[in-house]
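Hello forum,

I keep getting stuck at the same step: I have a sequence, I want structure tokens, and every attempt I make locally crashes halfway through. Rather than fight my setup again tonight, could one of you with a working pipeline run this one for me? It's a single chain of 245 residues.
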Amino acid sequence: MSLDHKLRFGNFTSSEVYKLMPTATGKVSATRGTYIKEKQIERRLKRSLDLSTKTQPMKWGKFCERRVIQLMGTSYASCGEVTLHHPNKELPWAGSPDSECKKEDVGVEVKCYEPKHFAEWNDALDVAKKESSLESLKKSCPKELWQGVSNCIILGRKFIEFIAYMPYESELEQICEAAENWDGPDQVDYEFIFYAIKTGEIDKIPYLPDNGFYKNLNVFRFEVTKEIRKELTDAVIQATTELTA
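Reply #2:
Ran it on my machine without issues. Output:
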């Protein structure tokens, strides 16, 4: 595994690889050409175009992602902050998976969204689960779908687990303590969390009332079939032929 996030520039990444995929109607994505061009520019600049500005939803997501891995148990391991290259080193393809469960051959994607997006993501996953297929996600949630598929390919895992999490109100005291006592280098990123909870302004952060419609922790597992792996791999290979130094 590589800690070198420089793998992300100049390479197609799991978080943005959806831009290479056709739309739900089978047409070429409007973002495809722009995305390939951006990767060409990164190669020439030898740096990322992303200035890495952290938004509050991003900070919240990273904080809760750590909590989710703890809640899932010891068989789940965080992939940390690593960026991994696709096994075929000739392909400009990399990703930063959230977690994996090696015992069960599972790659894990954790999403800790704000309320509206959380509900929409859960509803979309529920439809896919009922259909026992990832197909509906191509239309409803292509970004999340292709990110998960990409990271499973990179990790070499057979299954993908999409985990959607938003804490119950009854969890906020624990979350406040964890945010206040976090001793990592990104401690300042989480000040807004414990301030909101300590001052009683909990509506400034995502949470669920206890015993509501949605559960706090929702796990959906799907097989990443050969067909969907090929679909994504073929798209990356084709884009690679258009990527010049």
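The chain has eight helices and eight strands. If your local run keeps crashing, start a new thread with the error log.
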